[in-house]
Specification:
By secondary structure, the chain is of the alpha/beta class. The protein has a single domain, classed as Glutaredoxin (3-Layer(aba) Sandwich), CATH 3.40.30. It contains seven helices and seven strands. The longest helix has 24 residues.
């Protein structure tokens, strides 16, 4: 009886310790405070956009002439309902910041996820057609069909994933699934501060 009780206590203790260690490993990896990984992605129009066109480290020049800008980029997929809600909120934010040094991008991962054997991924609508149907086409859509940029930003299937990058290529926000009010309040507050820097 004592041996059985000891074995049960020992196994329970080991399982608790393993659970704590696993929980620590799956904590979200945030890029806040780090240099944003560079990217060059094709737009839905077939042109290329470069992060370095808008932001670069303080000691580096922009790829194109012009003023530095704050970047708001959201990784999304057409099968992701919260993503579409976030895009709607970003659409409003883009309108509110028209004429200010802020550039908005949507990074489409729909085709990247189609490679997986998951029915909702395979049957997902075309992202551009879906956004067009919803009247949400004013933000530049970048195609990351192989997930290369998503991996650089540590983005997985937990979408949407929103990044705000300052004028000097430092990630200032890295959030998954922000609520509508959070986007309206937190992102606006952050943008106002970063625009002034």
């Amino acid at each position: 009886m004592i041996r059985k009780s000891f074995k049960t206590s020992f196994v329970t203790t080991v399982l608790i310790i393993m659970g704590v260690l696993i929980a620590q490993d799956v904590e979200k990896v945030t890029l806040v405070g780090k240099t944003a990984p560079k990217w060059a992605l094709k737009t839905s129009d077939g042109k290329f956009e470069y992060l370095k066109n808008y932001t670069a480290s303080i000691e580096k020049k922009l790829r194109k002439t012009g003023d530095r800008q704050v970047i708001v980029q959201s990784f999304f997929a057409s099968w992701c309902v919260p993503c579409i809600k976030e895009i709607g909120e970003l659409h409003k934010l883009k309108t509110a910041y028209a004429g200010k040094p802020v550039q908005f991008f949507l990074v489409d991962l729909t085709d990247y996820f189609r490679q997986e054997e998951v029915k909702k991924y395979r049957e997902a609508p075309d992202a551009m057609a879906h956004l067009q149907d919803l009247g949400l086409t004013d933000i530049t859509v970048l195609e990351d069909k192989r997930g290369i940029v998503a991996r650089k930003y540590k983005v997985n299937a937990v979408l949407p994933r929103l990044f705000v990058i300052d004028k000097y290529q430092t990630v200032q926000m890295d959030e998954a699934g922000l609520c509508s009010i959070c986007i309206e309040n937190q992102v606006s507050e952050l943008l106002d501060r970063l625009i002034e820097e």
